[in-house]
Design a protein that fits this description.
The chain has 753 residues and is of the alpha+beta class. The chain has three domains: 310 residues, Beta-Lactamase (2-Layer Sandwich); 124 residues, PHY domain (Beta-Lactamase, 2-Layer Sandwich); 159 residues, Heat Shock Protein 90 (2-Layer Sandwich), CATH 3.30.565. It contains 18 helices and 30 strands. Strands 1, 2, 3, 4, 5, 6, 7 and 12 form an eight-stranded antiparallel β-sheet that branches. The protein has an eight-stranded mixed β-sheet with strand order 11-13-14-8-9-10-20-23. Strands 16-15-19-18-17 form a five-stranded antiparallel β-sheet, sandwiched between helices. A hairpin with a 2-residue loop joins strand 21 and strand 22. Helix 4 packs parallel to helix 8. The radius of gyration is 50 Å and the shape is elongated. The C terminus is likely disordered. Keywords: ATP-binding, Chromophore, Coiled coil, Kinase, Nucleotide-binding, Photoreceptor protein, Receptor, Sensory transduction, Transferase. GO terms for molecular function: ATP binding. Its EC number is 2.7.13.3. It catalyses: ATP + protein L-histidine = ADP + protein N-phospho-L-histidine.
């Protein structure tokens, strides 16, 4: 049987370290042994150092069954555990020696690891008592930071490491030493930051899978793992292994820090790597599995309390912001522009999100309070933010990164909360710059060092100070929530103000219209009364002159007097039509049930002379009764018939028919039903493009010399029909007559029952 090791010998440096396959190193640390089993529990992997713990070599166990090497009793333990997904941790007796053993599944294999167990009952009792004491102490802490500090202290007391740190990641996975407990003679790392390159992506992913990682001696020699050489691609995933060998890049990094042994516990919160408990010792150090488990439990205490402690810390902020929000939204201010000035200077408006300044940009006016950009800058800033956020909201701690063109403005303010209030209106809260100093464990720009031997992790971890400018303190969730709620309330107030402005505008317009109508009524009175008298005198005088002096006047003088008489008559007719048009608008709308047959008869009788002169024939069908104003309907029918008589064709006898369609619905009239009265003539007609224009007042399609008229008749028809909640339309083609359709409601109250 041929065997080979599976040690990963690919050259790894800082150029390709992010692609380093740290989960398959092919070697382990020397403080324990490892074997890999098939699903049939046949040993196909074995660490070279098995002979240092047991009486046989790795070459002797490869290819054998686990039961034949370690006995039936131990085989039963792992066989039962293979049905479960979790890692098994159990004590086993191997060749009369007690080992702490770990068993888990790794893809298509099982991994079995064993470390000599030296713990006694007293040590287990001490670990239990210390853990119980820690749980009692934990309830005395209020903030997350104080809890982390207690965990650092208790973990060091429990494990005996020289330095214990609680390491917290930011959004970019740069780390900060958030809490620390160390030997008094060591330089503290508390508050130092470390770049994300110190812990590459695949290392963070491995921390998510395996929450506890131990290096007992940084100077260890990796122990190779051997396998039966029956597949060139055979390998073993050690992601969950407790003995997995460490990346040489990480080993070099720790040596540069002077560290001799480490313990790392993952802090996982809401499915993400929140931080680490990092324990450093400046010489070699191993821990019993019991102490490791107790330390891991303290890490779980932190992650279980993150939400609770952060909520406690934010509660006071939330209480204050909500209190300010209630006060500022509780003001009963009138919906006028002056109210926004009152709002802007209210100190509660700043308190609701702990801002340094605030500006309102409403209808082109700027209202501001506190530390803000200059007033002439705010409109352009509001416009830019509106476009950038698509008339939504925008939050930043460093506005200069987004609007560098206004860099001179940001000497005063850095943080911004923006909310659009519609139509270029906005509210913006501001925060002043907070200059901060960040202390790094070494220059983060020199995390990689190049020398004659290539690229290496930095070997200097001396404190390196970075000064951050043009940035405010972060906006907290309670502050952002309060700002959002108030912006929403302010939007409502603006809408009320706009409605109030519209109401005032329409009221003023209504008053102007009322005054105009009164003036028009006065003009109408003058037109229909005062002007009638001079016209009558003109007609009388001209007639008298013609009667008495006709024989003494020239022919031209006689023609001129006749023209003057006719002009006065046309003006009288026009004034009469205007009076009729006005009467429709000002009618009392005294609706009553009228017989349309009777109305038509009366109209025909009234215009009999015109009918005879035109040699016209009018045919009517049986018409219904409708609710209407009698004299208006009579005027309506009269105007339609006279219009047909006026525009009769000289080529044929004029024929006018009047008919009705019942229960008609029309898209122009909604869901109600109507009587459709149809007036058809065979006169000269008109182009269909004028079918709407003919109903406009003073509209004429022909000159006064061709057809006499005021241009009011059909406009009067339209107004009468509208007064009855109806509709009138026409259709025609030149030379082929015209059709007028009058729709009157067929429901009681304004039409037929």
């Amino acid at each position: 049987m041929k065997i080979r090791d599976i040690v990963n010998r690919d050259i790894v440096n800082l150029i390709n370290c992010e692609n380093e396959p740290i989960h398959i190193p092919g070697s382990i640390q020397p403080h324990g042994l490892l074997i890999g089993l098939t699903k049939e529990f046949k040993i196909v992997f074995c660490s070279e150092n098995i002979s240092e713990f047991l009486s046989f070599r790795h070459t002797e166990v490869l290819g054998k069954d686990f039961k034949d090497v370690f006995g039936s009793e131990n085989f039963s333990i792992i066989k039962d555990s293979s049905l479960k997904e979790n890692v098994l941790q159990v004590k086993m007796e191997l060749e009369k020696k007690i080992f702490q053993c770990f068993f888990h599944q790794s893809n298509d294999y099982y991994v079995f690891e064993a470390e000599p167990s030296k713990v006694g009952v007293e040590e287990i009792t001490d670990v239990y008592n210390q853990t119980l004491q820690f749980i009692n102490y934990m309830n005395t802490t209020q903030s997350l930071k104080s809890l982390c500090q207690m965990v650092a202290k208790e973990t060091r007391s429990l494990t005996g490491y020289d330095r214990v740190m609680v390491y917290r990641f930011d959004k970019e996975y740069n780390g900060e030493v958030y809490a620390e407990c160390c030997r008094e003679d060591l330089e503290p790392f508390l508050g130092l930051h470390y770049p994300h390159t110190d812990i590459p992506v695949q290392a963070r992913e491995l921390y998510m899978r395996n929450v506890l990682r131990l290096i007992t001696d940084i100077d260890y020699t990796p122990v190779p793992i051997y396998t039966i050489d029956d597949d060139g691609n055979k390998n073993l995933d050690l992601s969950l292994s407790v003995l997995r060998s460490t990346s040489p890049i990480h080993v070099e990094y720790l040596k540069n820090m002077g560290v001799g042994a480490t313990l790392t516990i993952s802090l996982i919160h809401q499915g993400k790597l929140w931080g680490l408990i990092a324990c450093h010792h400046y010489s070699s150090k191993n821990l019993t599995p019991e102490i490791r488990l107790a330390a891991q439990l303290q890490g779980q205490f932190i992650t279980s309390q993150i939400d609770v402690r952060q909520s406690n810390e934010e509660y006071e902020v939330s209480r204050k912001t909500n209190n300010a929000l209630e006060k500022v939204t509780g003001f009963d201010l009138p919906p006028i522009m002056e109210s926004f000035k009152i709002i802007s200077v209210n100190p509660e408006l700043l308190k609701l999100c702990n801002a340094s300044g605030v500006s309102l940009y409403i209808n082109g006016e700027v209202y501001k309070n506190g530390v803000t950009p200059p007033g002439n800058i705010i409109p352009s800033l509001s416009s830019w933010l509106s476009e950038y956020s698509n008339e939504g909201s925008f939050v930043t701690e460093k506005i200069v990164d987004f609007v560098p063109a206004m860099k001179s403005v940001w000497d005063k303010v850095s943080g911004v909360i923006y909310y659009s209030l519609g139509k270029n209106n906005s509210i913006i809260w501001y925060r002043t710059e907070t200059i901060t100093e960040v202390n790094w464990g070494g220059d983060p720009t020199k995390a990689i060092v190049k020398d004659e031997n290539g690229l290496h992790p930095r070997n200097s971890f001396a404190k390196w100070k970075q000064v951050n400018k043009n940035k405010s303190t972060p906006w907290l969730h309670p502050e952002l929530n309060a700002a959002a709620k108030y912006a929403h309330a302010l939007q409502k107030q603006i809408n009320l103000m706009l409605l109030s402005d519209e109401e005032i505008k329409y009221r003023k317009l209504s008053e102007k219209l009322k005054e105009s109508n009164e003036e028009l009524q006065n003009i109408n009175w003058i037109s229909t009364h005062d002007l009638q008298e001079p016209l009558r005198k003109i007609q009388i005088i001209s007639s008298m002159v013609l009667f008495k002096e006709k024989d003494n006047m020239s022919e031209n003088m006689i023609v001129s007097l006749h023209k003057m008489n006719k002009s006065a008559m046309r003006m009288q007719n026009l004034l009469a039509d205007i009076l009729k048009y006005t009467k429709v608008k000002n009618s009392a709308k005294a609706f009553e049930l009228i017989d349309m047959n009777q109305i038509v008869k009366e109209v025909i009788l009234d215009i009999k002379e015109s009918i005879v002169d035109a040699d016209a024939e009018i045919i009517t069908s049986d018409l219904p009764s409708v609710y209407a104003v009698p004299f208006l309907i009579k005027q309506l029918i009269s105007n339609i018939l006279l219009n047909s008589l006026k525009y009769s064709s000289p080529d044929r006898k004029l024929l006018i028919t009047i008919s009705v369609e019942k229960d008609v619905k029309d898209v122009n009239l909604g869901d109600s039903t109507y009587f459709k009265f149809v007036f058809v003539d065979n006169g000269i007609g008109f182009h269909q493009e004028y079918s709407e224009k003919i109903f406009n007042i003073f509209t004429r399609l022909h000159s006064q010399n061709e057809y006499v008229g005021s241009g009011v008749g059909l406009a009067l028809c339209k107004k009468i029909v509208q007064t009855h909640n109806g509709y009138i339309t026409a259709k025609s083609s030149l030379g082929n007559g015209a059709v007028f359709m009058v729709y009157l409601p067929s429901q009681s109250g304004s039409a037929l029952i």
